[in-house]
Write a sequence for this structure.
């Protein structure tokens, strides 16, 4: 698909440069136990607590494959429209490091479980661009080395050792930091929809190896560098920006780019050469003799396919075409699967409460969700997953607005209380007497009192000061403690003021 | 293909085995002798032959995703040459 | 009074069951025999307490009518099996002091069946060797001596040389072994005992220090075929912790043991008639053919055309796997650590591995590293795995014509310690007859057939179809009954 927005270019001293970007995203597969052992994958445990003898590579220990990790990798591949390889196998990547107890990482080089696929990303001008996926393979994570606990020693924690990862390798199809950022965000959205990765970048559930090269527009690919383990969208973009500029500077100064592994320093916002990995390039991959080939049955594949949820692009289309949700709301809601889960539960309940079809209430429901609930959650610093207001409670509130029990103002008051207490709106209305009144007799009495007490202002109003109408509304609402139906107040005031 | 002393040093480096000059020198003919012998395999016609994947026909079994292991830090650290504060300790690594 | 050390597994088990003696008496006798045989250097660690505890448990069990398959039987355990609470070194300095907190599946099964452990048997370091000269704990000396009157110390074979020597010297009734390219069969042949390597996947590899994963198999070593059947039955069985373990039931090999080979066809592979094979071995092979024919088998000539490529294939595949399997010995989590003053992590690794591994282990790690390294992988490793597929196919094609194969176990009788230790290739050639069936994962056994002119034992090898250990054992029994092998090493230790 053609990219309509102006191409991203680096202006060098000798002319323009194009940036070519490919990403290898390591995504932790959501599972209870590790890829080849029965130890827990829980984050943040005591050092070496979630370690089995297999993870510590004790003599004689053997790997046994976790079926759920295979299932999630296959579902991810299906979601990306990728080719699923019915026959795959595991290889050993051999190198020495203190975070790698076996002396090799079990990965898939020669026969990955997932082949070619693609991901559509949204770009600046509102269009989309297709980014090719080269492959997805399953592999083990390494442990963690801590360097700051002792002056002369590093400490090894193997809790992450053996946790299952998917490595999702893109084609070098991205041409700007913004595209790379959009790709990571979309991929994260996709994985969270599928449920194969929680996408939690702070906890390291997603990390990207960023491959960058520069060239004259239209030239052959330049030599690339690989910046390892970049752990946020912002850093991915910053690393590309820095690295591309650095490469341009090197080339323009007459130098050559060396194919190497680099490290991103988020504090200095720069990349630098990782000398510690320099001699480790000969990984001596060979098939792991402890593991037989992985053969997927048709039934296994069918289950993976059948268990896939509605994916982002389909959901966006349905929200727009079937539910008629405004594009801004649609974008916000479909950006994360947790929003859609909440929204769909809320919408179903709201339709039920109001006795209407979903499309009839979808617009108002999405408005409330995006402006009121998201705004409220943002203020109290909670995510949609631990919202104090449940979809059923939200739907009940929307019902009270729809049937005129609550005015917009009252509804906001009730919502604030719900956010704070987690109580049902009906109970809040009941206990605090927040029901709106349309009782004309009661409102007329109040209006009469206010007009009598403000005879001067009545005269002014009648003399042409129209703006005073708002004053009378405010006074009436205040006297009614906000519970008067504003439409009724307006009508009666107009009548009383002549 | 024959190995020279530089190759011996490179392989020993990859295998993380320190070799003295004398050892490296002695390994050159030893390794060449063995490699020269195994290289006769090149003569075997293997066109269209798949490399052996499983010695005895057998299926890779998949495990259920349940926590059945871990929580044995003492056993994991029991034989460590140096363990401190629940970690394995190694000479400081500069990354 | 019973001479306990004259009893093997069946003798001990049955006598104990009959109430002829207590398990404790038998264990004491063997503990004493082990302790008296230090000159053989067959054990790295002696574990009398383990043997005695198991015996006392067996005696208590018998008193309440509880008899397990190996109640009353003490065993020797090759030091490649991890044993909880007992040092396990794979005969390497690298693992000196390593005390597993876990029990290998095979030893757990044996101890669960009532057996006790007399100690951890010496072996070639990390099971790499054919003469037991690569152990970091010194050579094992065969109990056998040539009849020439000289006292030349001989090899008990390898890598399960501690096992073979201890059984031949009758200081253990039986022992576990492991076989990667012949490490059960060749030492069995050199010491006049029986040894069987089952089908790859029969015995769990969990908890056995790995040498070459696609080849390693545990097996039984004993004085006779029946004891092998009993022991192997107790060692075998599906293990979900080993991804290559076969999910099949274990037949009652002992009960079904029969020397009647009527209806069986035994193939004689012509490619095993190698140049320079001693006439005595040639003659023994012919004798074996006659014995099997006498037992009712039909003899057929077969061809295994890729046989001569088996050893080079093995010496690519096994070192490649080993170079990776042994990467975990890095001085971080267990075993020795060499940390020169001011050394970096990488220097610590290099120093630790230089100090921990013996020369043969290093040689194989380097070969394995080389054949897997960039640019060579396809030429060596992929090629070898293709040739291996052809070797396996040779056997499959042979099974169309026969049920079993009969060959010599080794191309010579036991040689002297030191005789081949300077020439790795000459040493490797010792496994020429055992390696092909290892590459194909087939069950194979060595039984003693006779003695050579120097008075040393010679073995015959029987190779079977996948999972057909029964036929292998049956043929072994047929040979055993006809060979009447009764020679014993004269005690000098
Ligand atoms: Mg990478
Ligand atoms: Zn990776």
């Amino acid at each position: 698909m053609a990219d309509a927005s102006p191409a991203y270019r680096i202006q060098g001293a000798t002319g323009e440069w194009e940036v070519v970007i490919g990403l290898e995203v390591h995504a932790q597969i959501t599972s209870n136990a590790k890829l080849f052992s029965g130890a827990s994958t829980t984050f943040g445990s005591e050092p070496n607590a979630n370690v089995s003898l297999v993870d510590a590579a004790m003599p004689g220990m053997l790997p046994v494959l976790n079926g759920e990790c295979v299932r999630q990798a296959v579902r991810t591949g299906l979601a990306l429209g990728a080719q699923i390889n019915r026959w795959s196998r595991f290889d050993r990547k051999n190198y020495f490091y203190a975070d790698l107890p076996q002396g090799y990482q079990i990965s898939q080089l020669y026969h990955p479980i997932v082949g070619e696929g693609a991901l559509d990303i949204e770009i600046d001008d509102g269009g989309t661009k297709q980014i090719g996926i080269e492959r997805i393979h399953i592999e083990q994570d390494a442990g963690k080395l801590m360097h700051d606990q002792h002056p002369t020693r590093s400490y090894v924690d193997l809790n992450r050792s053996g946790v299952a990862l998917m490595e999702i390798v893109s084609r070098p199809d991205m041409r700007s930091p913004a595209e790379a950022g959009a790709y990571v965000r979309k991929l994260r959205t996709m994985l969270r929809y599928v449920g194969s990765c929680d996408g939690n970048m702070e906890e390291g559930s997603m990390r990207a190896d960023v491959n960058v090269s520069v060239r004259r527009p239209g030239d052959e690919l330049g030599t690339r560098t690989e910046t390892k383990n970049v752990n946020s969208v912002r850093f991915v973009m910053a690393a590309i920006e820095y690295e591309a500029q650095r490469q341009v500077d090197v080339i323009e100064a007459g130098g050559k780019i060396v194919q190497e592994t680099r490290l991103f320093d988020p504090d200095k916002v720069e990349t630098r050469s990782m000398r510690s990995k320099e001699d480790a390039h000969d990984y001596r991959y060979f098939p792991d003799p402890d593991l037989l080939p992985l053969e997927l049955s048709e039934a296994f594949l069918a289950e993976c396919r059948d268990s896939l949820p509605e994916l982002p692009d389909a959901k966006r289309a349905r929200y727009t075409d079937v539910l008629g949700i405004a594009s801004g709301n649609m974008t916000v809601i479909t950006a994360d699967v947790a929003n859609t889960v909440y929204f769909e539960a809320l919408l179903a309940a709201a339709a039920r409460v109001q006795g209407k079809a979903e499309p009839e209430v979808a617009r108002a429901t999405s408005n409330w969700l995006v402006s009121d609930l998201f705004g409220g959650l943002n203020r109290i610093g909670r995510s949609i997953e631990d919202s104090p207001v449940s979809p059923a409670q939200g739907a009940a509130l929307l019902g009270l607005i729809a049937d005129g029990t609550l005015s917009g103002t009252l509804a906001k008051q009730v919502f604030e209380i719900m956010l704070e207490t987690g109580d049902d709106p009906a109970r809040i209305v009941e206990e605090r007497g927040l029901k709106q009144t349309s009782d004309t007799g009661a409102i007329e009495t109040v209006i009469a009192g206010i007009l009598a007490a403000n005879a001067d202002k009545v005269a002014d109003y009648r003399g042409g000061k129209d703006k005073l109408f708002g004053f009378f509304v405010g006074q009436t609402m205040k006297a009614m403690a906000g519970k008067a139906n504003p439409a009724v107040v307006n009508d009666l005031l107009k009548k009383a003021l002549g | 293909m024959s190995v020279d002393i530089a190759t011996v040093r490179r392989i020993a480096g990859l295998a993380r085995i320190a070799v003295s000059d004398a050892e490296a020198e002695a390994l050159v003919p030893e390794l060449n002798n063995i490699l020269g012998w195994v290289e006769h395999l090149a003569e075997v016609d293997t066109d269209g032959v798949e490399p052996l994947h499983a010695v005895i026909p057998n299926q890779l079994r998949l495990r259920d995703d349940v926590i059945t292991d871990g929580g044995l830090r003492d056993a994991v650290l029991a034989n460590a040459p140096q363990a401190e504060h629940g970690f394995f300790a190694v000479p400081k690594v500069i990354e | 009074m019973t001479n306990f050390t004259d009893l093997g597994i069946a003798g001990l088990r049955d006598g104990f069951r009959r109430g002829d003696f207590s398990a404790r008496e038998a264990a004491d006798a063997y503990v004493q025999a082990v302790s008296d045989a230090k000159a053989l250097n067959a054990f790295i660690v002696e574990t009398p307490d383990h043997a005695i505890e198991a015996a006392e448990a067996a005696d208590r069990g018998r008193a309440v009518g509880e008899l397990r398959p190996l109640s009353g039987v003490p065993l020797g355990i090759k030091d490649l099996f991890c044993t909880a609470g007992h040092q396990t070194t794979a005969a390497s300095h690298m693992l000196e002091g390593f005390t597993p907190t876990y029990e290998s599946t095979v030893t757990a099964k044996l101890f669960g069946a009532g057996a006790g452990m007399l100690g951890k048997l010496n072996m070639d370091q990390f099971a790499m060797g054919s003469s037991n000269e690569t152990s970091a704990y010194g050579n094992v000396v065969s109990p056998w001596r040539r009849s020439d009157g000289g006292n030349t110390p001989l090899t008990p074979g390898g890598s399960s040389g501690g096992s073979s020597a201890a059984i031949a010297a009758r200081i253990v009734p039986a022992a576990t072994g492991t076989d990667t390219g012949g490490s059960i069969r060749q030492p069995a042949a050199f010491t006049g005992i029986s040894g069987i390597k089952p089908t790859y996947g029969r015995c769990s590899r969990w908890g056995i220090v790995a040498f070459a994963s696609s080849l390693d198999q545990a097996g039984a070593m004993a004085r006779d075929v029946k004891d092998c059947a009993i022991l192997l039955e107790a060692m075998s069985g599906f293990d979900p912790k080993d991804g290559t373990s076969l999910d099949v039931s274990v037949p009652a090999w002992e009960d079904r043991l029969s020397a009647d080979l009527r209806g069986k066809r035994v193939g004689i592979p012509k490619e095993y008639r190698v140049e320079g094979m001693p006439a005595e071995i040639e003659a023994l092979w012919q004798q074996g053919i006659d014995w099997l024919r006498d037992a009712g088998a039909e003899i057929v000539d077969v061809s295994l055309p890729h046989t001569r490529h088996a050893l080079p294939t093995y010496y690519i595949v096994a070192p490649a796997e080993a170079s990776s399997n042994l990467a975990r010995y890095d001085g971080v989590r267990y075993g020795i650590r060499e940390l020169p003053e001011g050394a970096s992590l990488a220097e610590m690794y290099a120093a630790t591995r230089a100090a921990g591994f013996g020369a043969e282990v290093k040689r194989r790690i380097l070969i394995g590293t080389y054949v897997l390294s960039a640019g060579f992988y396809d030429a060596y490793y992929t090629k070898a795995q293709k040739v291996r597929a052809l070797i396996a196919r040779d056997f499959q094609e042979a099974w169309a014509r026969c049920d079993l194969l009969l060959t010599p176990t080794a191309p010579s009788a036991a040689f002297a310690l030191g005789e081949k230790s300077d020439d790795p290739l000459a040493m490797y050639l010792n496994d020429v007859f055992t390696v092909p069936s290892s590459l194909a994962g087939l069950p194979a056994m060595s039984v003693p057939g006779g003695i050579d002119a120097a008075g040393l034992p010679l073995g015959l090898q029987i190779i079977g179809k996948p999972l057909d250990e029964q036929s292998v054992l049956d043929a072994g029994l047929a040979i055993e009954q006809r060979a009447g092998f009764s020679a014993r090493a004269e005690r000098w230790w």
